Amino acid sequence: MSRLRTKGWVMPVSFVLALLLALIPLPELLLPARPYWLALVLAYWVIETPDKVGLGFAFCIGLLADVMFGGILGEQALRLVVMAFILQRFRARIRFFPLSQQALAMGGLLFNDRVIDAAIHLLVGEPLLPWSYWVAPLLGMALWLPLYVLLDAVRLGKRGR
Q1: Neighbours of 22 (CB within 10 A)
Q2: Is the Cα dihedral 145, 146, 148, 152 positive or negative?
Q3: Is residue 28 part of a domain?
Q4: Could you say which DSSP state residue 130 is in?
Q5: Residue 64 and residue 67: Cα distance in Å, rounded?
Q6: Shortest CA distance to 65 belongs to which of 83, 49, 48?
Q7: The total number of structural domains that make up the chain
Q8: Domain that residue 136 falls in
Q9: Would you tell me how many other CB atoms lie within 10 Å of the CB of residue 109?
Q10: 8 Å CB contact between 21 and 143
Q11: Quick check: 77 and 70 in contact, CB under 8 A?
């Protein structure tokens, strides 16, 4: 147990890295396919440490992301709260899925996130999102396995042999 307590830096560093990965400039062609790093990292922490990361945390980190990225204030906060709520509701089931099935569940959650984002854009009168915008959930689904394994290894102090 003491090993877990000494790894308190892992969660904040993972969120900072997720925010920084979202700020890296990409070519215009690749922008719509950018994975939603913040949602992936949030999903990991909601599944693994629900006592530390919940709806309030998701809302605060979403507001921080909204301010950092200059989008509609509250947009990412809403999207992350919805994702955290669904994950909390089904955490017991998702946690015990094999990682391949967890990746499918994450793909569904990321697709749901895109639907919410498209609805928000529609409500505020912004232009419709291009078809390539729907590729990002697939990429996020593919990244779930390596991200989960990496965060788990760092959090628990496992070493590859």
Answers
A1: 16
A2: positive
A3: yes
A4: P
A5: 5
A6: 83
A7: 1
A8: 2-156
A9: 24
A10: no
A11: no
DSSP state of 131: G
Rounded distance between C-alpha atoms, residue 66 and residue 140, angstroms: 20
Q: One digit per residue, pLDDT tens: the chain, 161 residues?
A: 444 454 788 999 999 999 999 999 989 888 888 999 999 999 999 999 989 999 999 999 999 999 999 888 999 999 999 999 999 999 999 988 999 999 999 999 999 999 999 999 999 988 887 888 889 999 999 999 999 999 999 988 876 55
Q: Is residue 152 in a domain?
A: yes
Of 84, 31, 89, the closest CA to residue 62 belongs to 84
Note whether residue 25 is domain-resident: yes
* Residue partners of 156: CB distance under 8 A and separation at least 6: 3, 4, 7
Q: Which SS3 state, helix, strand or coil, does residue 35 take?
A: coil
130: left (phi over 0), alpha (psi -120 to 50) or beta: beta
Asked whether residue 161 is domain-assigned, the answer is no
Residues 78, 11, 155, CA angle at the centre, nearest 5°? 135
Global pTM reads 0.89
- Distance CA(70)–CA(59), nearest Å, equals 16
